[in-house]
Amino acid sequence: MEHFDVIIVGAGLSGIGAARQLQDKCPGKRFVILEARDAIGGTWDLFRYPGIRSDSDMYTMGYDSKPWLEPKAIADGPSILSYVREAAVERGIDKQIRFGSRMKSAAWSSADARWTIETESRDGSRQRYSANVLFMCSGYYNYAHGYEPGFAGAEDFTGRIVHPQHWPQDLDYRGKRVVVVGSGATAMTLVPNMAKDAAKVTMLQRSPTYVVSLPAKDPIATLLRKLLPEQLAYRLTRAKNVWFQRYVYQQSRKNPGKMRDRLIGMVKKQLGAAYDVAKHFTPSYNPWDQRLCLVPDADLFKAIRARRAEVVTDEIERFTAGGIKLKSGQELPADIIVTATGLELEVLGGAQYTVDGTPVRFPDTWSYKGMMFSDVPNLIYTLGYINASWTLRSELVAEFVCRLVNHLDLRGATVCTPRLRPGDAQMAIKPFLDDFSPGYMRRGIGLFPKQGDRDPWRNTQNYMLDREIIRNGTLDDGVLAWETARAVAGEPARSAA
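The structure corresponding to this sequence follows.
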């Protein structure tokens, strides 16, 4: 059984970024990346639907150590995938990845102060590894399948039904009538891109989403790159965009009515006075109760204005042989139906976890700074921001892991465990992601740990604050218990002073 100082699970944007930081900040440590799939890239290798792109700018979604040099800030999937692969190859990280290794279980032994991880290959064979620290960068949704709500009459439809998470490469939609069911980022990406070749594309939504258009190219970033050294221009653009993201989010929470009017006003300007914006683009909730949908260069609005695409707001009664019958009585004809109905959440890769033989129920644990779990040693989990770019938080978490690994050595310890202080158990319980209510999160939030009403048991979703409490906060905070391994199983662990 191979042993490593750190095992990273997941070779996507987070996992490759974590490996880069381990190389820089913990150069003497051995690590490996376990990846269930056969390629680098995670989300950006999995999704292959037309127009797949980021919904965050790449100056904040890219790595701090690797400037984004492409002209488009709102980048397409293949460009992002190329960036992640290049980030791995240029550091030799691709040689540290065990592909086709799906993690099935992780067992912590206090006697040995290490995790034992069992993986399964595609052929069903099993492999075991051990590590001092287990760093989960496996994302938060199930890669095997997306959310399918189940539609009455689906078996009657004579056309083709596809889910964006598993896009068939042989799908020919040229000259076809397409209905995209959904109103999230995936639907709003698919509609204008499929509309270029389809006879007609209809986005069928049960309720509207806030939509904002931004330029695909950042003019300030372009100017800075002409005037300044590459790294400096990148970091200044990154700082500008971090500030802008936070400003929009804070204004949405402080003055939701004002932000709502502004967002809807922008849509009216795009679609004109005759368009029913109230029905199709005016949500019933406040801005940032759910994530804003970004459309680059107004591509969705352009497709609607050109009548290549339309939005229908209604509920589905059933699928029919020739399309979808709505509760209003209208029937939408379709040759292809795309069910852009969302994700199925999964926590820590869906594996089974035990601590000294006892199964871990993560919903019963408290979240330490949104990345560790009470009474679970040497386990860190990356989940990015829902109100800003994912990578901003994943890089902070990776920094924390490097600090933790080095601090274990500094203290002569082998175990780091978040433990509740006296009185902490009486904290008010909040969901792991508070004030965020899209359907996929409501369906799966019960899988996640609890957060409390005081630090360090909060998951703040605030990059500015997290920089202080994650990057700069002391590790000797009275919550993290630093211990050595038990010499004999069952003997109490010894504190490492």
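The longest strand covers residues 126-136.
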